[in-house]
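Each field is listed here:
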Amino acid sequence: MKSQRLIRLMMVINAKKAFTVRELADEFGLSPRTITRDLRELSEVGFPIYTVQGRGGGYRLLRERMLPPIAFSENEAVAVFFACRSLQYFGSVPFDESAASAVHKFYHYLPDDAKGQIDRLRNRVVIWNPRRTMSAECLQTLLQAVMNDSVVTIDYKSDSGTTRREIQPVGLYANEGYWYCPAYCFLRRTYRLFRADRIVSARLNEAFPDRQDLSGRSVFEWIAPDLARFDPQCDLIVDLTEEGVRSLETNVWFGPHLHVREDGGGTVRMRIPVRKAAFFADLIWQLGKEARIVEPAEAVDYLKQKIEEVRRRYL
């Protein structure tokens, strides 16, 4: 069937990116005239190909490729729709306009009964995230750097002021509405975790030599084994009630380090940079009486000071 041939043609073109009519004619066992006509039809419906004139010419695929049709079951369609819709509660996402466009296209071409099922669930099934404000443009630059293993020049705002740095992102992940970027920092000569809303500006820096050993890392295992040489480490130990365990068991920071006792309570034991003791203490602070930091002393002292400041506000 012609429709099946066009779909297969789209898949082959996506894989090749550059090709001639003769190459496709030989691969499909068709005449060059038939292939040329098929390419014209694909172009008319928006498939992003263009001709290259002169010696070594032929056809090229634009950078943003168009994927061939994919068949979804009704349940799969509903799942994909709400997965994309869940992104609307983020202040920004690395693929902001693309996500909105994909949801619009997806919904528009669904059959009426599938649309009805989605409409009945709209505003009744919600995947909530706290809405934080950050630059979508910076997120898109970071995502592009992750895809290409590129270096990014950023202006980063921290407690000590704003500094310019060259970083090579390992990845991106979201937690509690914030986007985080673990990356190698060439200024500090080690790995750092950057919060995207503190990045004032970001641009790709193709002139800066990148590290070739980052491609094997992921957001689950981005910390270098020799990090302690640059960042003194300490043990964070937190005692939890049963309610505290429930609050932390799915937490991206503490969940993997949580040990549950028979009585339902538990303990978090993990290695953290000493300089980040206050950061982790603030995360535990949110649990109130359901958690107690045992170590390090820096975190305990920090929370005692915080408690005293709160107490004085109510005198």
In short: Residues 297-313 form the longest helix (17 residues). DSSP finds eleven helices and 13 strands in the chain.
